[in-house]
């Protein structure tokens, strides 16, 4: 008779780590960031809290890893976008911002993280912001700045407004209501209008250049 292989936390470290990360997401979604205590995370994951320290070093580092896995801009890589950059980043910009707009709508945990960012100052959240800025700086410096030249800061400002608008519209729709400037942002038709506006603004910026 073959020997039975016991699958436990030590034998399956990666699965255990993922369950701990998933627990952070579950708590963030249902209880908000105030519920992210080590004992609560361990209980939801079904493990002893010592495994959090063993696998991540601290609760903050566990939360930090979870936040990075959810944040859209921390995971953007122009090499993986599979888009022609010969247009100075116009199509890349459209793809990145449209994906962010749709992705944030679906990701309730990321919505909670952004609200957390806006309401509290923590090293974890500051680090996330810095990582996001680092990714954005790479895209600007390597792709759009060379195209816009002396007007590169103008395009950065336009992008800042678009990203901020994407955050606000999704958070407003998720927490407060469905209508913004008379547009039903929960309906497919309303979201298509917002998506078209994003594309039109980017097209305008590149034509203006």
UniProtKB/TrEMBL annotation:
<feature type="DNA-binding region" description="H-T-H motif">
    <location>
        <begin position="37"/>
        <end position="56"/>
    </location>
</feature>
<keyword id="KW-0238">DNA-binding</keyword>
<feature type="domain" description="HTH tetR-type">
    <location>
        <begin position="14"/>
        <end position="74"/>
    </location>
</feature>
<dbReference type="InterPro" id="IPR001647">
    <property type="entry name" value="HTH_TetR"/>
</dbReference>
<dbReference type="Pfam" id="PF00440">
    <property type="entry name" value="TetR_N"/>
</dbReference>
<protein>
    <submittedName>
        <fullName>TetR/AcrR family transcriptional regulator</fullName>
    </submittedName>
</protein>
<dbReference type="InterPro" id="IPR050109">
    <property type="entry name" value="HTH-type_TetR-like_transc_reg"/>
</dbReference>
<dbReference type="InterPro" id="IPR009057">
    <property type="entry name" value="Homeodomain-like_sf"/>
</dbReference>
């Amino acid at each position: 008779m073959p020997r039975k292989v016991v699958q436990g936390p030590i034998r399956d470290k990666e699965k255990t780590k993922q369950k701990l990360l998933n627990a952070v997401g579950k708590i963030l979604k249902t209880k908000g960031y105030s519920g992210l205590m080590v004992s609560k995370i361990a209980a939801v994951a079904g493990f002893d809290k010592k495994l959090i320290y063993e696998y991540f070093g601290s609760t903050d580092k566990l939360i930090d890893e979870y936040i990075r896995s959810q944040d859209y801009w921390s995971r953007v890589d122009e090499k993986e976008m599979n888009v022609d950059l010969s247009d100075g980043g116009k199509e890349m910009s459209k793809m990145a911002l449209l994906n962010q707009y749709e992705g944030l709508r679906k990701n309730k945990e990321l919505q909670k993280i952004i609200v957390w960012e806006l309401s509290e100052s923590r090293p974890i959240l500051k680090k996330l912001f810095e990582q996001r800025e680092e990714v954005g700086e790479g895209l600007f410096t390597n792709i759009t700045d060379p195209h816009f030249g002396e007007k590169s800061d103008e395009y950065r400002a336009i992008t800042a407004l678009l990203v901020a608008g994407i955050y606000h519209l999704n958070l407003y729709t998720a927490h407060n209501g469905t209508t913004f400037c008379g547009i039903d942002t929960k309906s497919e038709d309303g979201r298509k209008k917002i998506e078209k506006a994003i594309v039109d603004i980017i097209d305008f910026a590149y034509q203006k250049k």
